[in-house]
Amino acid sequence: MKLTLEDIGRLAGVSRSTVSRVINNQPNVHDDVRANVLEVIERTGYAPNAAARSLVSGRSGVIGLVIPSRVHAIFEDPYFSRLIQGISAASNSSGNMLSLFLFQSAEEETDLYPRVVKAGFLDGLIVTATRMGDPLLASLTGSDLPVVIVGRPDTGGVSYVDVDNHDGGVKAAVHLYELGHRKIGLLGAPVSTTAGLDRLNGFVQGLATCGMALDPKLRVDGDFSESGGYEAMQKLAKQRPDAVFAASDTMAFGALRALQEHGISVPQDMAIVGFDGMPASEKSIPALTTIRQPVAETGTRAVQVLNDLISGAASAPVVEILPVELVVRQSTDSTAPALGGRR
Amino acid sequence: MKLTLEDIGRLAGVSRSTVSRVINNQPNVHDDVRANVLEVIERTGYAPNAAARSLVSGRSGVIGLVIPSRVHAIFEDPYFSRLIQGISAASNSSGNMLSLFLFQSAEEETDLYPRVVKAGFLDGLIVTATRMGDPLLASLTGSDLPVVIVGRPDTGGVSYVDVDNHDGGVKAAVHLYELGHRKIGLLGAPVSTTAGLDRLNGFVQGLATCGMALDPKLRVDGDFSESGGYEAMQKLAKQRPDAVFAASDTMAFGALRALQEHGISVPQDMAIVGFDGMPASEKSIPALTTIRQPVAETGTRAVQVLNDLISGAASAPVVEILPVELVVRQSTDSTAPALGGRR
DNA sequence: AGGATTCCCGGGAGCGCTCCCAGCGAATAT
DNA sequence: ATATTCGCTGGGAGCGCTCCCGGGAATCCT
Hints:
The structure is a homodimer.
Chain A: H1 5-12, H2 16-23, H3 31-44, H4 50-57, E1 62-67, H5 78-93, E2 97-102, H6 106-117, E3 124-128, H7 135-141, E4 147-150, E5 159-163, H8 165-178, E6 184-188, H9 194-209, E7 219-221, H10 226-237, E8 243-246, H11 249-262, E9 271-276, E10 289-292, H12 295-311, E11 319-322, E12 325-327
Parallel strand pairs in A: 1-2, 1-3, 3-4, 4-5, 5-11, 6-7, 6-8, 8-9, 9-10
Antiparallel strand pairs in A: 10-12
Helix pairs in contact in A: 1-2, 1-3, 5-12, 8-9, 10-11
Chain A binds a DNA duplex through helix 1, helix 2 and helix 4.
C-alpha cells in the first residue's frame, strides 16, 4: 500500500513529472490538471517519500538541536524548557523537523559529527550552552554545515543569537543606583560562561556610569543554581550590602531563602534584582525585580537565522542580539508594604 | 568533497559492494581487504549518506517523540525532563536519532501524520501524555508504524510502558494505615488521566485491604500543579484528616504550603505521602515521603520496546509495567523532631 | 500566413545506497 | 582425474524522487 509519484500519476492520468510539479507548487501546470492531481493526492492520502526526496535534493528538512552533556543537572531549568519550545514552534512553522541531541558523555558528543553531520542527515544545527573553548564548536565550525549558537560563543566567525546580557547588567546597576543604593553587591554567574561574563561586565559598567565601582568584597559568584545562590548569599550577607544584583532568578531565589533565614527583609533591608524573568519570579515572596530576557524568542530567532543560512539568504557569521527589559517588582520597591523577610 | 561508496572503493582498490559489506559488518570479505577498506574510510572520514541508505533499506534510524499540545504548561515539570533524558540516552545508545515533536496546537498535531509518518521519516514513535480518547492515538494505531505509549492509554491494542500507579496507591494507603492513621484523605490527580485513575483505584483498594473505605468528603482532586495542590488542601484541611496521600509530589508541595499557612504541622498533625520521587521531594521541609517512580527508566524501556517492535523481535501490543517504591521520609515519620509546620 | 514564442507535459538520467546474482579461483569430495 | 562446494568479489538493478531536455499544442508577433 505504498504509493509513489508514478502511482498518483497513473491514477490522475498524468506523468510522474506533473505530479511532482503539483506537489512542489511549481508553475506550468494547467489548472484543471493541478486540481485533479490534488484531488487524487487528497483521496489516496499520498505523501512523498522523505528519503528519496532528500537523496536527490540534498536537503533533509531536519534541523538538529544540541545540548551538551554538562547541562543535565540544569536541564530542569525552565530556561531550557522555554528555549526548546521556542525552537520547536519555529521549526514546526517553518516546515522543519527538529532532532534533539542530548549528550550524556563526551564520547556521544564526538560521535555526533561523523554519524549525523557527515551523513547529511541535518540541514543545520543549533547548539546551546557551549562552554568556553568547546571542542564540539570547533569541529562544527570547520564543516560547511550551517550552525547557529544560542548564547555568545567565545570564538568568532560563527553565527549566534544572544540576549543583551551586558545591557541587562547595566540596567540592573543603574536601577539600583537610582533607587538610592550605594553599597551594591553582585551575586555573579560563573565567569566561565559568556553570559556570566557579560552580565558582570555590564553591571560593572553600569556602576561606572553612575560614578561607582564594584567592591570586590561585595562580589560572590554562584553556579546558576538555587543552592548556589543560597550559599553565595550566606557569604555576601556578612558584608551587608544594601542592594544585590543576582545574575539569575534561580540564584536570586536561593538568595532570598538565605536572607529570610538571616532575618534580613527584602526590599527594606536589601534590594534584590534577578535576571531571567522566569514565571516563578512574579510569584516569589517578595515578587522579584528582574531583567527579563526573551527566551522563547531567542529560540525562534535562532531557527530563523539558521533557515536563512540554509537557504543562502544569509551567509557566514550572522549575529543577533535581543533586547532585555527591566521588570520592577516588590524586591526593589522600598515603598511596598513589608511583605518580605520573615513571614 | 562529497565521498561515495564508489570513491572509497576506488581508493581501496575494491568495488562499491565490498565497501558496503565492510561498512555493514557483513561476512565474506577477506581480512586484509577489510582492514584496508577500513583504513581508507578512517583516513578520508567517509560516512555513508543517510538518505540513500534509508531510501533503499526503508529504515531511517529515527524515532519520534510526541508531546501533545496541552502539556506545555506542564513542560517544566521535572517529569518530562527526566523522561526525555531517559529516552534520549536510550536512543543514542541504540544508534537511533531522536526527533522531538512538541505541538502548540491541534492543527500541528493532525499535521503530523501525513507530513512525517507517511513520508516514512520515522521508524517508530513514542507518544507521551495522551489524553483519554486522544484522536492522535487513534490515527496512529491505525497505521503500521510501530508506536509505544508512555503511560497507560485508555484504549487497548497498543503497546505501552507505564509505572505501577495502582500499586503505588496501594503502598501509600497501606503505609499510612500501618502508621496508625485512620482518617486518611486523598488529594487526587485528575481522573481524566489514567495515572490519576490508577492511583485513585490503588489507593482505594489499599484502604480496602486494611478494612477501610475512602470517605468521599476526604477526597479532593487537583490538577497535578503546585497551586492545584494548594487549593485542594485548603478545602481538604477543613475536614482535618490525620493523613493524606497526594497523588503527585508537586501537589504535595502545594499542600505543604497550605498546611503551613494553617499552622498544621507535618507530620505531627497530618502525615503526607506524595507520588513521583522528584529530587525536590527530599529537600522539602519536611522531606516528603513519596512513591518513587523510575521515570528515566520508563523512557529507556519505551525505546527498547519500540526497537523490538521495529526489528520485529516483538509484535503488536507489548505492555510493560515498572515497579514503584515507597520512600519513607519525615513527612510520615511522627517520631521525627518537629521540623514541619510553621518555621 | 508562417515562424517564433510560450505554455504544458512526458520521459530519461541519476542521486548513493543495498540487494541479488553471476563469476572466479581455491579447496574439498568422489 | 573431474565434479562439487565454498569463500570472496564485482556489477546490474532499482529504491522514489527531482532536474533537465525535448516535443507538441496553443498563442503571439510582424
